[in-house]
Amino acid sequence: MRKKIGSALVVGAGISGIRSALDLAELGYQVQLIDRAPHLGGTLSQLDYQFPTDHCGMCKMLPLVERDSSSQYCLRKGLFHENIEIMLSTELVALEGEPGKFQATLRQKPAIVDPERCTGCGECSGVCPVEVADEFNAGLTKRKAIYLPVPHNIPNSYTVDLATCTLCGECEKICPTGAIDFRWEARKEFRILVVDDELIVRDSLKDWLTEDGFQVDAAESGPDALEKLTKQSYHLMLLDIKMPDMDGIEVLKRAKEMRPDVAVVMMTAYATVETAVEAMKIGALDYVLKPFDPDTLVPLVLKLYETVERSGEREMEVGAVVLAAGFGSYDPATGNNTYGYGEYPNVVTSIEFERLISGTGPNEGRLLRPSDGKEIGKVAWLQCVGSRDIQANADYCSSVCCMFSIKEALLAKERTDGQVDAAIFYMDMRTFGKNFQRYREKAEKEYNVRFQRSRVHSVEPEGANGNLRISYTDLDGAGREEIVDLVVLAAGQRPPAGTEPLAEMTGVELNSWGFCQLQPFSLSRTAQEGVFVGGSFSGLRDISESVIQANSASLQASSLIHSKGGGLAEATEQSPEFRDVSRELPRTMVALCTCGDTLAQAANFDGVETAVSALDSVTQVHRLERICTQEGWSQLEEALHSSEANRLLIGACLPYVYTKKLRELGKTTGLNPALMEVVDICTPAFPNRNSNPEQVSREIRTTVAMGVGKVKGMEPTPPAAIPVIQEALVVGGGIGGMSAALAIADHGFGVNLVEKEDELGGNLRALHRTLEGAPPQELLEQTVSRVEKHPNIKVYKKSEVLQSLGSAGHFLTTIEREDEGGVTLEHGVAVLATGGKEATTESYGYGQSEAILTQHQLEDKLHGDSVNPAELRVVTMIQCVDSREEPRNYCSRICCGSALKNALYLKDQNPDIDIYVLYRDIMAYGFLENYYTQARQKGIIFIQYSVDDKPRVEVENGQVTVGVTDPILGKEVTIPSDLLVLSTGIVANGQDKLAQIFEVEVDQDGFYQEAEYKWRPVDFLKEGIFTCGIAHSPRSISETIAMAEATAQRALRILTSDRLTAGAIVAEVRHSLCCLCEKCISACPYGARWRDELEEKVMVNELGCQGCGSCAAVCPNSASVLSGYRDQQMFSVIDAALEEMF
Amino acid sequence: MAEFEPTIIAFVCNWCTYTAADLAGTSRLSYPPNVRLIRMMCTGMVDPKYVIKALLEGADAVLISGCHPGDCHYINGNYKARRRVKLLKEILPRFGFEEDRLKLTWIGASEGVDFAATIKEMVDQVKALGPNQTREQMVI
C-alpha cells in the first residue's frame, strides 16, 4: 500500500512486459501496461513447456514481497496488481514530451464484448457462421469470428475479430447476459464519402459498406466531392485517383485544407500506384488497388473505422517508457522455400509443433500428424531457418532455437515413451546458457535424441502418404536422405510488425536488421533517454535473459523517474483501517448470484437458500441477479454495509475475477478482504455437466457450505508489518557489484560495498577491448569514479565478510578489514557479486612453452606490446579447453566471443597471419554471429573437432605444433604455430564459504544457485539476498551490468519502505505447542525459519515466508500453522464437502 | 437400486491443478460431478490427517493433485506430497481402507484435458472398488 508518485508505460505484455510492469509496480509506481493483442502473455501464452524444467513456472514471477498487492494464481491466466492498469487491444500511437514527463497517447480497439458481463459461456461462438484459422493454435485449428483469444485467460471474455466478422448480429441476439454490443448506432454515425467517376464503383461500394452499417454518400467527381465536404464533415473518403475534370491528388489537397480530419484512402489502378504512394505523402492514409472485391475493401474500411473512431483514445502522462514489444517470426514460406513450408502440411514451425503437443492444441496433446492424424513415428528438427542466413538478410543467430528444439524433441520423446525417433539437424548447437550443455547431453544420452551436424537443403514429399524426404550432406561430404513423418522448422526471429513506426514515435534507433539498437554496455538503454527496452525487442532472448533485461529496463526507468523528481514512495500510505473483529463471533453473509435467471432455472434456488441459511455462522443470505454488474455489486456492497456480518462468502462464477473487487470492497466497508471468499457456483449448472436440478442444487449447496466452512474459521487479525533496514550490502567490487551499488545508491539508499582487493574493478581491469568496439577501460574509470564519489556508497577495500545473521529486512553482517579490524553492518538486503576467473589448465601443453597462452593472457600481451602481431605467421586457438565435458560440463559463453575478438584484432593488425580456430560449436549467439561471419570473410579458418578426437599439441624446443582431424578433409592436419591460444573458460571464485555464511546454495560447478533459472534468475531462495555477474554464471560485460541492475531492482522492492506488510497467507508458530524439533526449519524451502537460541523459540521471517504450508504439514504438534488453512478450517471444509454425498 | 455414485475429495494445488480444473470448466470439458475440489496453496501442505479425516467421514476416495515434479511454485512441495502419499498408502489399509482410495497425480495448469480424464478414470476405478464401508463400520 504505497503512495504512487511516478508513473510508467510498459508497451507489450509478454514476459518482459509483465516483468517490467510488476517491477515498477512493486517499487510503488503506477504502471500502464498495454498490449495490442487481446490477451496477456505474448508468445508465452502459446507455450506450455519451457526448458530446462519442461514445464511452466511463470507464476514464480509474481510478487513475493507485499504479495497480496497482486493476484496469486497462474500468471498465464491473468494478472491483477493494484498499481498496474492493463489495457489490451491497445497501441501506443504518439509519444510527446521529454524524459520524466512524456505524454503518451494510447488507442484501444473498441470492445464489442463487455468483459464485465461476459461469463464465457460460448453461446455466441456457437451461432457464429464464420470459420477462420486460429492464431492461438498457429493456424492448426479453426475458430469463429467471435472467439476466446486464448483458452485460459481471466476474465475469460470473448472477442470479436472485426476483420472476419460478417456482422450478422446473431451473437448479439443470443448472448444471455447482454454483453455483446456492436454499437450499430456509432457505425451509422461514421460517414463515408465515395468519390469515383464510375457509377458501378460508387454503387457497389455503397452497397457493401451500407450493408456493414455505415452511412455512405457518393460523389461522381472532384468538384461534387468538395461541394459535399463543404456541407458536412465525413470521417472517411474513398477517393479515385484518375477522374476526368479534377484528379484525386488535387481533390485530396483541397479536401485536406477544408477538413483536415478526414481520413482518405486512394483508389488506384495498377498503373498509377506511384501516384498513390505520392498521395500518402500528402496525407492519404492508405490506398487500394482496383479492381477490388468486398473481401479486401471492407476489412480495410473496418480497420480504418477502428483507427479513426477516436473514442478509444486516451492521453496520459508518464515518466518513462519501457518497450517490450517482443519479436516476430520468420515466415519460412518466403524466399526459395526449399523446405516446402505451406505446401506440405507435415512441415511445421516450432510454434506450430508447440501447439501440436499442447493439451489445449488441436489433438489435446497427442502427437499426431497434421495431414492425416496418423501417429508420428519420426520427426526432424531443422535449425537456423531464416537465421544465420545472409541470403535472408539474417546474419544473426536467433539464440533460443537450439534449446527450443531440444526441448521439443524431449517432449516428443516423453509423450511417446521414447518411441518417436527425434533428430535435430544443426550447424552449431548453441548451448551457451547456464545448464544448457547438460540439458543437451541429457537429450542425447538419456533420451537418444539424434544430433546431426549438417544443413538440410531440401524437403520433398515421399509418395502421396504425407511422408517427407529430407536431403542433406553429411560432414564427410556424402549426400544422405531420411524419410520422416514430420519436419519442424526452427524459424528464426524478425522484428515484430510495427517496429518502425514505434521506433520513430519513441525516438529509439534500430540496427541494420531492424531490431532496437542498444547503448554500449547496456541491455536496456536506447538512443532516447527515458525510453528503455526489455526482452526480445532488441534481439531474441530466452526467458531467463528476458526477465533479467526487463528487470534492468524497469530499474533504468525507475532511476530516471527518480532523478526527475518523480521519486519512489517515500512514505507508506496508511493501510486501510479494517474493523477489528477478532473478539466477535463469526457472522457470515452469503451472497448468491443467480446469473440473471440462468442459475435460478438450473437449480432449486429456494432450497439452496434455505440450506445455506441453516449453516453455522451464516446470518443472512442474499440472492442477487448479477453480481458481476455494477448494479449487482452496489447491491452487495449496500447489503454488507448495512449488516453486522464479519465474514463474506460470494457464490458466483469465475472466482478469480473478484480479487480486485474484494480489495475495493474491503476499503469501502472496512471488512478485511482476507475474511471474504468467492466460490464458483456456476460450473455445476453448465449444460453438459448436469441436467438434473436436484443434483445441481446439491452441488451448489455443498460448494457454498465448503466456502462458509473456510471463511468462518479465518483468522481475523490483520497481517503483521515487518520492519526493514533501508540499507544494502554489496559483496564484490567488480563491474557487477559496482553497478548494483550505484543503482541502489542512486535511489537514495545507503550501500556498503565490500571488496577483498585494494582496488575496485575486478575482471574488468584486465579487459582492453570488446568485440563491439566500446572501450572497457573508459567504463571502468567512469564507474569507479562514480562509486568512490557517491555520497550514499561506503567502500570497504581489502575487506571480507566474516559472518552474517538475520533475514530479509534485517541482516547483521560482520566484515573483516585488513587494516582496520572488524566492523558490523546492519542492512536489509545483500547482493553477492563475487565474480569468477579464467580457468587454468594442464591440457594442450599449457605451461610447456611461452608460446602457449590463454585468451586473457593474449589480450594482456597484445595490450602490453609483448606480443607483436607483425611478427606472427600462424596462430592457433583451441576452444572449449576442459569445458563442456565433465567435470566442467558447461559452456563459458564468452570464450568464442573472446576468440573472435582476438582473432579479428590480429587479422586487423597483420592480415598475413594465418589463424586457425579449433572449435566444437561456435557460440556466436545473437548479433555476435555477424563477427563470426566477418572472421570467416577475413580468412580465419575454423576447424571443428569432436570431444572424442581432440586436437593434439606437441612442443619441441619451444616450437608448438597442433594436430587436428579436419572433418571435411577427413584427414589429420598439422599446424606449426607461433602462438597457441587456449580458451580455458571461466570458473567460480570459490564462493562456497560466502554461500555458507549467507545460507545460500552453490550449484555443482561452484557458481551461485539462483532460486529459479528462468523466472527468478537473480534471486536466491532465501529472500533478501541476490546475485549477479559471473558469480552466477559466465557472461559478458553488458550482460553482467544488466544482471546487476536486476539485482538492484529486486533489492529496491524491499528497501523502498521501512515497513512491509506480510501476506495474508503466512505461517506462524504457536510457541506453547512447539517442541523445538526443528522439522519445520528443514521443511521450509525459503530458509524463512530459524531457531532463536536466546528465546528458545522457532521464528518465522514473514518476508521470506511464501505461505506454502510445508511447515504446517510437517509439524507433529500442529504448532506450526498457516493462516487461512488452519486445521479447524480444513476440517470444516472436509465436513461440508461430505455432508451431502451421492 | 441406483448405480453407486462415489464422492471424491480432491486436494488440488492453487497453481497447477486448480488452474487446470478451471480450464476444464471454461473449455466446457465434461467430467463427472462426483468430485469436491478443495483448493490448497500447495500439495505439500496436505496434511495426512486431512486425507484420513476425509476417508473416515465417508469420502469414497481422495485425490491429491499438484504441479509436475520440478514445477512446484514452492520449489519442492509436490515432492513432499509424494513422500507423504507413499507412506499414507502403507498405513491406509490399517484403517481399513484400500490403498487405491488415495491417488496422487500431477496436472499442470494447461492440462485441462488431463484433469477431466483423471476425474473420469478415477470415478470408474472407485465405482469398481465399491463404496467406502468404513463410515458404517467404525464408530468415530
In short:
The complex is a heterodimer of chains A (1142) and B (140). By secondary structure, chain A is an alpha/beta fold. Helices cover 27% and strands 23% of the residues of chain A.
What does this structure look like?
- The complex is a heterodimer of chains A (1142) and B (140).
- With 1142 residues, chain A is an alpha/beta fold.
- Chain A has eight domains: 7-109 and 317-326 and 496-563, FAD/NAD(P)-binding domain, CATH 3.50.50.60; 111-180, Alpha-Beta Plaits (2-Layer Sandwich); 191-308, Rossmann fold (3-Layer(aba) Sandwich), CATH 3.40.50.2300; 328-492, FAD/NAD(P)-binding domain; 588-712, Rossmann fold (3-Layer(aba) Sandwich), CATH 3.40.50; 725-835 and 989-1056, FAD/NAD(P)-binding domain (3-Layer(bba) Sandwich), CATH 3.50.50.60; 838-986, 3-Layer(bba) Sandwich (FAD/NAD(P)-binding domain); 1066-1122, Alpha-Beta Plaits (2-Layer Sandwich).
- Chain A has 29 helices and 55 strands.
- A five-stranded parallel beta sheet of chain A has the order 3-2-1-16-27, covered by helices on one side. A five-stranded parallel beta sheet of chain A has the order 11-10-12-13-14, with helices on both faces. A five-stranded parallel beta sheet of chain A has the order 18-25-19-20-21.
- In chain A, α1 packs parallel to α14 and α6 (222-231) runs parallel beside α7.
- Residues 568-572 of chain A have low confidence and may be disordered.
- Chain B has 140 residues and is an alpha/beta fold.
- Chain B has a single domain, classed as Rossmann fold.
- A four-stranded parallel beta sheet of chain B has the order 2-1-3-4, with helices on both faces.
- The two termini of chain B are 28 Å apart.
- The mean pLDDT of chain B is 91.
